[in-house]
Amino acid sequence: MVDLVQWSLFLLFSALVLGGALGVFLTMSMYRAGISLMLCLVAMAGLFILLEADMLAVIQVMMNVGGMLVMTLFMVMLMMDPGGEMMWDMKRRMRMKGFGALSMSMPAELPAEKPEEQGRALSPPHSHDIAAVPAGEGGMPGKESLPQEKEATSGTAEGNDGKQATVETTDGYRERGNTMTNMEAGTNGSNTDSSDPFRRMREMQRAIAIMQQQLGLMQEQLVELQEDLLVALPGGGQAQTPSASRPNNNRLEVPAAAHQMQMGQSSSPIHSDHPQENTRSAVYTCPMHPEIRQAGPGRCPKCGMELVAVEESPASSTATTLQSDTSSRASTGSGSGSGSGSSTTPTMYTCPMHPEVRLPGPGRCPKCGMDLVPQEGGSDDSDGDNGKDGSTGQGSTGHDSAGGGTESQGGGHDHGHMAHSSGMNGGGVETAEQMQRRSPKAYYRMMADMAMTTRQLPLAGLFSMLAGLLLVVLVLVVAWPSRPAAPDLDGPSRVGDLLLSNYMIAFEGAAFLILAGILGAVLLARRERKRQGARRKPLAATTRHKQEVH
Amino acid sequence: MGGPGLVAYLVVGAILFAIGIFGALSQRGAVMVLMGLEIILNASILNLVAFWRFISPGDYSPQVFVIVAMTIGAVEMAVGLGIILMLYRKKGTQNIDKFSEMKE
Fold it and tell me: Which residue of chain B is at minimal alpha-carbon distance from A455?
């Protein structure tokens, strides 16, 4: 009976010890790893008690579980681990892709409902009349309204930037919010944030939230502009044929506004009267992957999100004028071919941590060895390289200079790119959208790359498994000298008395050493923090310089 | 046969040792590597206690040895955490791959 109890306790405790030890390294959160280590050590104390060394068990609990765990958790807090919340969030997001898609596209869809109602309110008298306007006249108001539109949206973006600067409190993020070009954010991220994945992730999420907010504001602005255009367009109350006119036809005839509103439109307006309208067709694209374009609705082959309808007019003159106009406004050296759409530009591969690294093919980052992710809008570099579209696959040094060139033009390029892809505009959106563009799988892979294990994990597992096997075999093979268990032991209490009376010095020495260690760590940290607070900027500058040198 | 003998504890200690080696080898974060070292240390301590219990239970010096080992482990952990903290403050990371140079 006693043996049975002993065996069951032994099995329980050893299972807890081994499970806890495994859990330390199998979880992806340092916080959970600390908790798991505590479990392992407590179960180890249980094994000590089973071995009738309960004095050691007490010391184990006090020393390791108390001191060690407090220190470990202290470190964990300093390293800004959000307690596994991020990994949990990622898993949840991967599981609930549909919901994620819904929440992603919501700010784009909500304002899009409004013009529909507006159209219904306004269109019955006007719509066919507007649709009957000849092509030249139909095109003209759109072109005229284009600069105005752009100015208005850029004004919105600037207003948003100002707001965002007041909202954000951390200085690093504020400066990013103001400049917020692609390369700027990349260099910022690579010298301070890339090393700390959690901080970077939080900033990504914040950037995405801000982008969505900006998007909503811009859509509202666009709706207002569209109303203005509708009012300003020439149109008398002529008769209309109710069969040919649909309530949202008038939106079609405002090319710029309609083009800007691509993102939110879910219906495909087809007008049979107008020849130019027939070239327009609804193309379905993924909110995360603009390069995915399909004729019909469905799911994105990359991430499985619901595709949203986009009004695409590839051969339309307004689109190309929009493209060339914005791109020539944006970057002086860019050829007109750079704005020809994502389908013709070669997909560039970039490092999630080093955006300045751009290679034409997939592979590893030359700086950190991470897997490169495909990046849409690879024409950034070609703008800097005077329009060499296909030949951008030089070494990373050449790309650094190209990146520097792009950095100065980043805002302008944002302009054109945004106007092309989804009708959004303004600084800061590029980065967030680029982040959003990642498929959940790539996102997850990036996270696994930023996780706490090395890439040589299978090798380490193999090695440790071999070592453990060897040890177990050795333990089982060797004939250990065994005596009848503890015949002359007076009991555990005697051991404790003896240790406490005779070996008090060792015990106290241990406690004092631990205390000294904790105090030393705290004091060092405080001193260092104080020093860093005094010279935060120069330190950041030097590290940035160092990173650039590397 | 009685309760779990020496071999059972040694097997547990060996497996724990292997897990600790796995952790210390596979982890990238310095704190996690320290946790792996801690697990290795605990495996060896478990072996020590098991040997004491089943081979020379009347002698208490192994227990003192265990206490000393625990103390050294704790001190090592404290010093290691202090160094990691300093490096983290300095380099902004706790990734040991980035700690390739001691000098700034």
Answer: B26
Within 8 A of B19 by CB-CB distance, chain A residues are 18, 21-22, 25, 464, 468
Pick from B53, B55, B73: which is nearest to A481 by CB?
B55
Residues 6+ apart with CB under 8 A from A147: none
Q: Do B89 and A195 touch (CB under 8 A)?
A: no
Instruction: Evaluate whether A309 touches A267 at the Cβ level (below 8 Å).
Output: yes
With CA atoms as reference, the chain B residue closest to A478 would be B7
> Does A485 reach chain B within 8 Å, measured CB to CB?
yes
Of B21, B32, B81, the CB nearest to A464: B21
Question: Quick one: which H or E segment has residue A294?
Answer: strand A293-294
The answer to whether the pTM exceeds 0.80 is no
Inform me whether the C-beta atom of residue A529 falls under 8 Å from chain B C-beta atoms.
yes
CA distance A286 to A309: 9
pLDDT in tens, A105-144: 333 333 433 444 444 444 344 434 433 334 334 334 433 3
Other Cβ atoms closer than 10 A to B87: 18
A438-463 pLDDT, tens digit each: 555 565 555 555 555 666 677 888 88
DSSP string across A104-116: HHHHHHHHHHHHH
| CB under 8 A, 24+ apart: contacts of A546-550 | A547/A190, A547/A191, A550/A367
Please report how many Cα atoms fall inside a 13 Å half-sphere around the Cα of residue A522, on the Cβ side: 9
Half-sphere exposure of A43 (CA within 13 A, CB side): 25
SS3 (DSSP) at A350: strand
Chain A from 182 to 201: CB within 8 A of any B CB: 192, 195-196
Encoded tokens for A235: 């149109």
